[in-house]
Each structure stands twice: as structure tokens, then as C-alpha cells.
Write a structure and sequence with these properties.
The complex is a heterodimer. Chain A is mostly helical. Chain A contains 18 helices and 4 strands. In chain A, helix 3 (about 55-75) packs antiparallel against helix 11. Chain B contains 10 helices and 10 strands. Chain B is globular. The chains are: A mainly alpha, B alpha/beta. The structure holds adenosine-5'-triphosphate and magnesium ion.
């Protein structure tokens, strides 16, 4: 590549720019991760006037990011509307609970359990996908919605000695590493050690992101996008649409199971009540908010939404609730008397979503395609600028085509998809 | 090479093909002519596997295609430029072409085929980073044909490639069709523009309400009075 760039000075320059951008992205990611790792050491020193998230909030944000990445495969990549995504989350969490708790007296180590949870969630994804693949749009949404309702109900309503019924399952063994030190005879990654739990979930998030990126840029990723754009045309291209859509369901579900296995072990307890429809909707909102199909969007969307949900609204509430409550008490208006800002979180998300759809329908960090599609002429200039760059990179690719060029090497455009 | 034998196809209760039989031999350009709703696109769909014949047989080389799924039919060597182009609007021109080669990822000759398509359609090369949805109708048609070629088909199905194009562009497209054929690809060409189609094709079939009513060499079809009246404007 360096040789080609040297041979073609001016496109080489443009290519250099593109490379700088990758470098910049890497630096940003590394910086954010470093911040995440350092955060447990200094967040207590942050003055209370600043609404900083605590470690538990940060952990919730992170596993929602994993969930959003998974749903993004189904909704963003393959264009299949799934309203029952919480089902796989529940399946992952229950798998962890069954395999590492006194409930069945099985105590497998979490490091194995997590993969079992992933596999079972993926299978469930196929189970849901197989009969529903012929459905499109609204019908698919309704069936998945039903699935998302049924699964937690099954966990709740089966006899208690099978799934724990309403009481759920506890205590679930936390993930541990038998490493002795000042902290005791092992490292334990659960809510009794938030710092370590945060590190674990961040690692899972990085892994999930990497996986999604690989999938997006693979043959499979292109097949999903083709199906999303035009299923019939995709079939005529030689894409096996049935298997490709099933894989979207399976891989999306497996990330949900992944997050579920973490959450079960992290909370060391699960209840059927915690897998509500609102979780499916929240994750979908995150994906839309971030920008459908955009990986960075899914992560940033999850952090933003859960930050507002868990930290910001409560912080604002400190200042807003007391005066409103006292006004309520003196005037006898019950609504004001009992006003708690963060209990209106879903109303606020709804408003945010509506506002977003009006002012920025492509999401916070959209993919190149969606930005262009939704803003048409608005991005024409930017498109042209990108085009010069892309032509240049493409040219270089052609230059290098002396040897066998596989399709993976060919489109430098692909790598820009998320920018 | 391709043989349809008494093919019947339905959309629900609509009997769209009522016993279509036709053959295409290696190296030929064969055209299928008919007016709106005659069943031309339906015939192509039964060949590419998007629609299953309820009766009859679709044979390609030595195999029966009736139950073969569309993605396998592509790898057998049949690809299609569908009616209404159906390019992937949000993908670039280059990405669309690459989708056409979906079945042959690890193929070392892929780069050659990009070059071949760009030689046939220099316009596509100029626009390779442009999103397909923003191409003009004619450019989209070129892309649809180019994309089908990227599958390296031995049999190319073209569904109304002249639809909605200015006369100059129609000429150009038909020239290219001729070139593609000369490069060794067999072509089944569906057209309403009978004049142009009979110009490039060696033989033709006339389809009317799901039935073949006439089959002959292109020259004789051009002379035929009924054909002249119905499809050649007198
Ligand atoms: N998806 C479908 N569902 C129901 N009926 C259909 C469908 N597609 C086509 N038909 C019907 O089948 C018949 C043949 O359609 P077809 O698309 O093959 O015509 P065509 O010869 O390609 O016409 P045109 O030149 O207008 O493209 C028509 O009567 C049409 O209404
Ligand atoms: Mg048609």
C-alpha cells in the first residue's frame, strides 16, 4: 500500500488523510477506554454539582450498548423490525442462573456459562426467525413483540422449582478469577466489586463492537445490507436470503444473551419482572437515536440514553422536585405534590425521539448512506468531497490488483461506512 | 442450453403462464416479445427461481431448475438484470457491482470483470463512487446489466433494458448487448421494443396472455404482418 501511495503522489495524500482519520478514531477509542478504566479511581472526587454517573450507572450504560449493538444487527443491518429483543436477554440471564446457582445446584464457572448462554440465545433467535421469515414489516414486528412477552411469562409461570417463578433465582455465582492478593483469595466481578464488574463489561463491550465491525465489513454484512435495500434483488444476486436473515436473528440474539449472562451474574439475582417490554423499546430507541446501522451510534446512543435515564434526570430532579412538591403541598395539587422527575423518563424519551425525528432523523452518529439519503441535497457537497477521496482509494486498490484481489480487499468505501 | 417445457405459473389464483415452451441455445440472443402483462417478466422469474412453476419443467444444461433456490441458480451460471433495474440505491456503483459478484468472493478473476464492465460502460467507471440511487435512469440500467455480468453468467436474462430510455441511449444499450453476446454470453432478452430486439436477436418468441403464439427467426418475425401490426407500429 505504501508503495502505491508513493507512486501516486496526490491520491496518496488523500489516502493519507483517510488513514489519519482511522488513527484519530483509534486515539478517541483508546482515550475513552482509558477514561473508563481510570474512572473508578476519581469519580468520588467529582463535585456533586456535576452530574457524574456512578459505577453502577456506567455498567448499565455499557451492557445497554452491547444490547444495542446486537439489536442493530437485526434492525440496522438486516432491516428486520424486532420488538421482542428482551426475550433473548432473559434467555441469556436465565441460562446463567440455571448453570451457576443453588437453584439446580449446578455451579459451572461463568467463563463457560457465558458461551452456553450465547449459544442458547442464538438458537432461540433461529427458533423465532425460522417461522417468521416470510413475514415483513408490521407482521414481523407483531410476532416478535409476542415472543418478547411470552418468554418472560414462561419463566414466571412455570412451576417454581423449574424457573423460580416470581421469586426468580438467587444467588447466582459471580464470575471469578482465582487470583489471591490484598483483595482476598479471588477476584470477583459482581456488584460487590463494582470496579471489576465495570472492567469486565467494558471488555465485553469492546469484544462485541469488534465482532460487529468484522461482521459489517464481511460478505455477510454486505448480504444483510443488500437484503435491507431490496430483498428480491438480493436473491437475484445469489444471496441466500433465508439463511442470511436467520443469521441476523441468531447473531443479534447471541449478543443479547451475552449481555444477559453478564447481568445475571453481575446482579447475582434475576426476576422475571426485570425483563419487561420497555427494555425492548428502550434498546430500539437507542438504535434509532444513535443512527440505524451505525455501530458508534449504538454505543453512543446507549450511553447517552442511560446517562439521562439514570443520572441526569435524578440530578435535575434534586433541584426541580422539592420546590414543585412544596407548591403541591400548599396548593393541594396532588400531581405536583408527588412529582418525581425521573419517573417521567419514558415520556421524556418519547419527546426526545419525536424531536430527533424532526431535526435529525438519521440519528446522532449516522452511517454515510443514511445521512445522504435523508438529507439529499444537504450533503451533496460533502458527498463530492468524499468521492474524490474514494476514487483515489479505489484507484490505489486497482493499482494493487496485480495479485489476486479478493472482494474483501476491494471496496475501501466499506471501511468508511460508519463515518 | 435452456429449455422451458410447458411451464405454468400462478400468482395465487392468477394463471400468469399457460404452458410456455421455449429454448435458448448456447451463443444465441433470443428475444421474448409481448405487450404489458403478457407474462414476460413472469417467464424470467420462473427461470431465475424467484417463482416456482406449478406445472412443466425448466431445464438448464443437464439439470432441472424447478426446485433449485435462486442463489444456487446464480452459481449455475444464470443471472438477471431485473425489470425496473432494482439497483441497491444506497450502495455505490462499485458496491453494486460487487454485489453482483456475491457468489464468487475468492475468485482471482474478479478484478478482470470489474475492468470488463467498466470497459463496456465507461460511464459507470466515472461514477463508481456515486450512490446508485442518484444515477440517471440510463445509468441505472447500465449498472443493472453490469451487475448481472459480474456474476459471470453463461446465460444472461435481460428484462426490458430499453425501458424509459432516450432513443440514443437505447441504441447504445443494444450495441452493448450485442458486444456482450459476441464476448461469449448467451442472452435471453425480454422487450417491448420489438424493432430493436429483433435487430440484435437471432430468434424470437411472441408471448400473449401467458402463451407463446409465434416462434421464428428474427428476420421472419420482422416480416410477419401480425407482428408488424401489433409490435412494430404497422
Ligand atoms: N406479484 C404478482 N402478483 C399478482 N399478479 C402478478 C404479479 N406479478 C405479475 N402479475 C400478473 O401476471 C401477469 C403477467 O405479469 P408480467 O409481469 O409477467 O408481465 P410482463 O409481460 O412482464 O409485462 P410488462 O411488459 O408490463 O412488464 C400480469 O397480468 C400481472 O398482473
Ligand atoms: Mg415485465
Amino acid at each position: 500500500m505504501a508503495v502505491a501511495a508513493a507512486r501516486l503522489p496526490s491520491p496518496g495524500g488523500l489516502r493519507g488523510l483517510a488513514r489519519n482519520e482511522t488513527l484519530r478514531n483509534r486515539v478517541i477509542v483508546a482515550g475513552l477506554l482509558l477514561l473508563g478504566v481510570a474512572y473508578p479511581f476519581f469519580y468520588r472526587m467529582i463535585p456533586s454539582a456535576i452530574p457524574a454517573p456512578d459505577l453502577n450507572n456506567l455498567i448499565v450504560m455499557s451492557y445497554y450498548a452491547i444490547l444495542a449493538l446486537g439489536l442493530n444487527i437485526v434492525v440496522g443491518f438486516a432491516g428486520l423490525l424486532d420488538l421482542g429483543y428482551v426475550a433473548f436477554f432473559a434467555i441469556g440471564a436465565y441460562t446463567a442462573a440455571f448453570l451457576s446457582s443453588p437453584h439446580f445446584d449446578i455451579h459451572l464457572t461463568w467463563w463457560i456459562v457465558v458461551w452456553v448462554a450465547v449459544a442458547i440465545a442464538a438458537l432461540s433467535g433461529i427458533l423465532l426467525g425460522a417461522p417468521t421469515l416470510r413475514l415483513r414489516g408490521d407482521y414481523l414486528a407483531i410476532v416478535t413483540l409476542g415472543f418478547g412477552e411470552i418468554v418472560p411469562l414462561v419463566f414466571r409461570n412455570l412451576p417454581g422449582d423449574i424457573t423460580g417463578a416470581n421469586q426468580g433465582i438467587r444467588p447466582i455465582d459471580p464470575p471469578t478469577i482465582p487470583l489471591a492478593g490484598p483483595w482476598g483469595d479471588q477476584l470477583s466481578f459482581s456488584n460487590s466489586n463494582l470496579q471489576l464488574a465495570l472492567y469486565l463489561v467494558l471488555a465485553l463491550l469492546v469484544f462485541s463492537y469488534w465482532l460487529c465491525q468484522r461482521m459489517r465489513d464481511s460478505r455477510l454484512g454486505r448480504a444483510w445490507m443488500a437484503i435491507r435495500e431490496d430483498e428480491t434483488a438480493a436473491a437475484s444476486m445469489g444471496i441466500n436470503t433465508v439463511n442470511t436473515k436467520l443469521l441476523a436473528f441468531a447473531l443479534g440474539a447471541s449478543l443479547s444473551g451475552f449481555a444477559g449472562a453478564f447481568v445475571g451474574a453481575y446482579q447475582t439475582a434475576i426476576f422475571p419482572e426485570s425483563f419487561r417490554f420497555s427494555i425492548s423499546i428502550t434498546i430500539l430507541v437507542v438504535v434509532i437515536l444513535g443512527g440505524m446501522g451505525s455501530l458508534r451510534g449504538a454505543v453512543v446512543g446507549a450511553f447517552a440514553l442511560q446517562y439521562v435515564n439514570l443520572t441526569f434526570l435524578r440530578w435535575v430532579g434534586q433541584y426541580v422536585n422539592p420546590p414543585l412538591n412544596s407548591v403541591g403541598r400548599s396548593t393541594g395539587i396532588e400531581f405536583l405534590e408527588n412529582f418525581v422527575l425521573h419517573s417521567y423518563n419514558f415520556l421524556i424519551f418519547g419527546i426526545v425521539l419525536v424531536v430527533m425525528m424532526v431535526v435529525r432523523p438519521e440519528g446522532l452518529l449516522p452511517t454515510r448512506e443514511r445521512k445522504a439519503e435523508l438529507h439529499g441535497i444537504g450533503v451533496a457537497a460533502e458527498e463530492t468531497a468524499a468521492t474524490a477521496d474514494e476514487v483515489a482509494t479505489h484507484e490505489t486498490a486497482l493499482e494493487e490488483a496485480g495479485e489476486a484481489v479478493t472482494i474483501e480487499d476491494l471496496p475501501p468505501e466499506d471501511q468508511k461506512r460508519d463515518r | 442450453m435452456l429449455e422451458l417445457h410447458d411451464v405454468h405459473a400462478y400468482y395465487g389464483n392468477i394463471h400468469a403462464l399457460k404452458g410456455v415452451s421455449l429454448t435458448v441455445d448456447e451463443g444465441e440472443v433470443v428475444t421474448l416479445i409481448g405487450s404489458n402483462g403478457a407474462g414476460k417478466s413472469t417467464t424470467l422469474k420462473t427461470i431465475s427461481g424467484l417463482l416456482r412453476p406449478r406445472l412443466g419443467e425448466v431445464r438448464f444444461e443437464d439439470g432441472v431448475l424447478n426446485a433449485v433456490p435462486p442463489h444456487q441458480i446464480v452459481s449455475l451460471g444464470i443471472s438477471q438484470s431485473p425489470e425496473g433495474r432494482r439497483v441497491f440505491p444506497r450502495m455505490t456503483v462499485a458496491e453494486n457491482l460487487e454485489m453482483g459478484a456475491f457468489q464468487r468472493t475468492a475468485d482471482a478473476t474478479l478484478q478482470e470483470d470489474f475492468k470488463r464492465v467498466y470497459r463496456l460502460f465507461p460511464r459507470l467507471e466515472e461514477r463508481r463512487s456515486q450512490r446508485a440511487g442518484t444515477l440517471s435512469g440510463g445509468e441505472q440500467q447500465m449498472l443493472a446489466i453490469g451487475r448481472a455480468l459480474m456474476a459471470k453468467p453463461r446465460l444472461l436474462l435481460l428484462d426490458e433494458p430499453s425501458m424509459g430510455l432516450a432513443p440514443v441511449l437505447v441504441e447504445l444499450i443494444f450495441d452493448i448487448i450485442r458486444t456482450i453476446n459476441q464476448q461469449g454470453t448467451t442472452i435471453l432478452l425480454v422487450e417491448q421494443n420489438a424493432l430493436m430486439a429483433l435487430g440484435v436477436a437471432g430468434r424470437g418468441y411472441i408471448l400473449q396472455t401467458g402463451q407463446i403464439v409465434l416462434a421464428d427467426s428474427a428476420d421472419r418475425l420482422r416480416q410477419n404482418d401480425d407482428v408488424r401490426k401489433a409490435y412494430l407500429g404497422g
